[in-house]
Amino acid sequence: MKRSIKAPAKINLSLDVLHKRDDGYHEVKMVMSQVDLSDRLDLEIREDGKITIELSEGFLPVDQRNLAYQAASLLQHRYDIKLGVSIYIHKHIPVAAGLAGGSSDAAAVLKGLNELWEIGLSTADVAALGSEIGSDVSFCVYGGTALATGRGEIIKPLPSPPPCWVILAKPPIGVSTREIYQRMKIENPPKEVASEKIIKAIESNDYREICNNLFNSLENVTLPLYPEVKRIKERMLDSGVDAALMSGSGPTVFGLVKKESRIHRVYNALRGFCDQVYAVRLISDKEA
What we know:
By secondary structure, this protein is of the alpha+beta class. 33% of the residues lie in helices and 30% in strands.
């Protein structure tokens, strides 16, 4: 049996880091939304119990270090599955970009194998398993747009934001999420969190208020460390996007654009700056 499944990228419309927890993780409150830049995973059942991974791009590990492998292995051992799986990942999402490409691949494997191996888990059960692999995997299981709290694993689905274009620009560098969080200093817990404003704007279907309240606590760490990320954000704003923000821990910056007529101008302005530029749309909750 075979199954193909999409693994969409995500952006953070807000990312509030509230405090450091006793377990070493940071307590966060963030609104994430998927975009239609996706990896595609082809899953095929194996009778020999082995898990194998092949990639369209050869720069990622294909063993236990790969989150998709970890997802298959976790399901296999947790539910005593004797079958294996061959996984082919068609990579389109940039790696180490703040777009949750690896987490989305893991979520796709969990969802796909839940069906192929006929385990019968609910979405909530699959998301709970995903949280054991990585903080963004639970969100990627649900998809669409959602509020994520805790260390990112507690998910509350939200309505879709107003439709718009999203320009993504990634400089030719990778950023370690772990390093950025380790450098994060929180002297005083924020009295007001941007995520609440973003939620209100989404529920009111107010595109302008979403643009006005984009916020990412991690910019305070990543932008000074990687000036090229700051330059891309400035370039994006100068080129005519309605709002711009770094996604996750970076280095990808995204811009929101309502008018389709502006897309080519923004895209071309950024293509002269970095090679990996994408013009995509937000994925609605119905599509998710």
